[in-house]
Design a protein that fits this description.
The complex is a heterodimer of chains A (296) and B (347). By secondary structure, chain A is an all-alpha fold. Helix content of chain A is 71%, strand content 0%. The chains are: A mainly alpha (296), B mainly alpha (347). The A-B interface holds A 27, 132-133, 135-136, 139-144, 147-148, 150-152, 154, 224, 228, 231-232, 235-238, 248, 251, 255, 258-259, 262, 265-266, 268-269, 272-273, 276-277, 280-281, 284 and B 14-15, 18-19, 22, 26, 29-31, 138-139, 141-144, 146-148, 150-151, 153-154, 158, 160, 276-277, 279-280, 283-284, 287, 298-299, 302-303, 305, 307, 310, 314, 317-318, 321-322, 325.
Amino acid sequence: MIDQNELNAQMPTGFQDFWHSFRQNKGALIGTWIILIFILIAMLASLLAPHDPTKIFEGKYLVPPFWQDGSSSEFILGTDDLGRDLLSRLIYGARISVGVGFLVTVFSLIAGTLIGLLAGYRGGRTDTIIMRVMDILMALPSILLAIVVVAILGTGLFNAVVAVSIIKIPSFVRLVRASVIVEKQKDYVVASKTFGASGFRQAFINIFPNILAPLIVQSTLAFSDGILDIAALGFLGLGAQPPLPEWGTMLVSAKNFFQSASYIVTLPGVCILIVVLGFNLLGDGLRDALDPRLKK
Amino acid sequence: MIRYSLKKLALLAITFLGLSIVAFSLIRMVPGDPVLMMLGERGASPESYAEMKATLGLDQPYIKQFGLFIWHAVHGDLGNSIVSNQSVVREFFDRFPATLELSVVALLFAMMVGLPLGIIAAIKRNTFFDYAFMGVSLVGYSMPIFWWGLILILVASVNVFDLPFFGWTPVSGRISPMFEIDSVTGFLFIDVWFSKDSWAAFWDALKHVLLPAIAMGTIPLAVIARMTRSSLLEVLGEDYIRTAKAKGLSTRRVIMVHALRNAMIPIVTVIGLSFGMVIKGAILTETIFSWPGIGRWLVNSVTSLDYPVIQGGVLLIGMAIVVVNLIVDLAYLWIDPKLRDAHDRSK
């Protein structure tokens, strides 16, 4: 007879299993590094930035970056049309982008999970009504819905965060609901029910921990989507307002100078691209590592 | 098949109702008084206020207002724009062809590049091509397209790097003003043939659509390439592919005839769903390239707080996307006989 404990000791734990496949995915590791570096920059912005991001240096308009003639060692990446240090603005921009990405993810994750648990666990008419509403929200392109919400709430960074969070809710609801419906029929939930577990206990303590894997993947994607959508709203003039150094908003004023000073357009966009790419790499890697169906 | 279509049509009606509720509630959630907004600050004497309120039907109970809104909407009346005082439906259909034309070109670009990338990556799995193409796709997928559009203008139109063969793409608009094109269908690529100097006008319109289409098509391209690769890889592992190979068929025939047809179903889904993505792209792309379509129209209406336009625009765009999704659904049945049989049998 094989001792059950011995067998358990030989089996890799869930985390070991996950880490084994995650570590082999080079893209995921690169993504993790990109994100860690940007989070570090965001946290240490006040130490790293050489200047105040909103400080205007009189007479130092459109100073070119170090690789062009006429650059200044004071402004490594040059200055924008109002004479503000571009490097400092980009560094503080990391703080805003990582921050809004985090807020969007947390808001939509919490709201989406609660609604999804409710729809999936209750079923019946509650489920039908919730899912019809979600279908309608999903029928509209996300940025259009965000624009509409901003039209109601008014422009500004926080309102943009609320708008983008709302449009991210349906994807979480659908995911959670689908997982709950599968879990609900499993033996452990049924057994718990016969012991008289309350609906609350079933939903949060029994079912929720078992649907974490797909939620983590979805959260990474919501993070990158959130950063992109907030930047897009900023670019349309409906998100963060100047002089806030938000990367999308920085492109608006830069647009008019991009023939003479292309770097003030190029650099904020490159930052957005790299961060979003980092999250997408991580999301891909997590999905491959967490989804048992994709394992060979 | 027919019953399935009817069921889908019923769902369409429900979605229409839902979208109407969203659009209807929207204008009532806005802080401020729509009547005052329409009259302007000065023209608001108590009499004209009451008159305007009655004209707009805002003195009625909500449920009746909603009924009237639906009644008018199904009769093709979504009110007038505050800014231009033109019918919202008319304004929409004046601009929709421009957006649709751009979207179609963008999707064609996405398919023409995305499908081959995905197919090659799947055939040459785990080689340099696979990694390179999928890397490019992931970058494309992460692209902030409002920025990408600016970079395209910078490199291709302004030609900052002085590259040969570049610098001939126009920066904005649909066609040069020197061509006088009568709007027959609203689609420029059709309308040019009704004007004189057709070929020159066609070429000019093509030059104009190129950059916005690339900007808009980039994300769908990436999605299509990734989906094509994974879908094809899955099919290539099936037994019938091994049989086809064992029969001595050429690799080309096995891939193009046997594998692709079955790999197409998820790809078609993705292409259909890209339409929503493309509309999202349109809002940003049209702003950058001053493209006279519904994306720019809507953004402007938000900036000028033109609520009837926002309300009607949301409803119409939502419906357009739902209808396209329906067409995609029906296209499945046509592509996949297995699905068709299943539906006929179960109903």
